[in-house]
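Worked example 2:
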Amino acid sequence: MRFGLLHFCGLDSFFCGRFASEGHTVEFISIPAFAFEQTMRESIFQYWPHCTIFDVAAWNCFTAVDHNSSETVLLSPAERLHVLVQSERMGFMADLTIHERLLLIEQQEQNSVFLLDNTNVDHVAFGGIPHSVADYVLLLIAKKKGIGVSMHQDLPMIKGGHFIYDSDFSIHTRRNEDKTIKMVKDYKPKAQRQDKWADTYRFVSSQKLGSQIGIYQYLQSEENQNGDALSYYHKWQSNAINLGEVKDIKNSIFIFLHNEPEATVNPVLGASLPRQIDFIRLIRRSVQDSIPIYIKEHPAMFLAAWEDKQVNYNAYRGTNILTDIIRLHNCELLDAETKTDELLEHQPICASIMGTIQSEALIKGCPLISSKAGPLKGAEGVLIVDNSTAYSTLDSAIFNKSRIDLESALTSNQDYVSDMLSQKAFKGSPNAGMSMYHEFSEEELQRNNSSTAKSIIYISNLWKNAPVVS
């Protein structure tokens, strides 16, 4: 088979050798800018001298757009609207008009068609769910052209393991359970990356480890001063409530936001919630008005998220979301300095589109509201919400499930969640070589990268043998 790969950071001889040993070729590879220098390109060219190496994020640059382009495009109006909504989260598109964004998306469609037609690949694998606009467009065009697509998503709490989102954009569960894949119950992130995002996650992990250095103190330090970040922090805090002021923590809903641009908020997963504000609104109208909702911001949004907005692959959260949240009835922002561990000790009702907070909440015995794309879908204590439940109520489902019932269902909570995750995990971490969560020895990396390649080949064969769905 002929493969295209995007966002994999373990492209060494063990990764490439696995493909080559089974007679497969890799026609193109997109490598993020931060990982380009660390990528072993000589290993790639040793096996496939013709392989095209590029960064799909370069397609996000508006200055390269041909304003006179009028070629036929493939995406439907609904798909283009979803892509357009994604652009709201990207810093490099913040100043573009709607017309300019549509022009950019159109050219990304054309770039995708050109790439796929010229490489004639059978399968495109993503080392993570698409985060930006260009890679999302490429995924949609590949699926439209009948090319196999899979997404291999890391979960920080499983070292050397990942989930596979298959052709239907749902989590593919292994047929033969591998007991060797286990959740790291007390994982301590140790970033191997050396960029600003790695610094951010080091700070976030230090808070998990009990550090008393707060976000404001961090931003005030000389090496981390950032005017935009401080401005966003002050805007949030000026409208936030302290956890000590919450009257009934246990029977309140706490929605945990993801950082932007966040893979788990991407509509590629089939969720009709392309923005986090949509998830907040959906929960607000799905429960009684008397139930208070508090929004906890992701710490990273006060840190590296405001770095260098002109970069083609960067995070951004417009401050309009603060106004949108405050306008909702009985919905408030939570103090940015609130420690997650302290909050979860109260066993509140937690809500998250996806992310590691879901595992952390269940381990603490908290009821959990999730989107239908989360890896813990089906676990006891997890309530799924999507647009089909928008005008029903979650009230009885939430409040009739007492913490006592939940705790009895989650006997040995950590083992239960670990087993639930391991049933859906495959060996190999797509980004182990540049991990922001774990340190890998050379021996671990070799096994990991070979296993990741094996997982890609496995899911591509399933796609190849499956009936085509239009």
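Residues 305-314 have pLDDT under 50 and may be disordered. The two ends are 22 Å apart (CA to CA).
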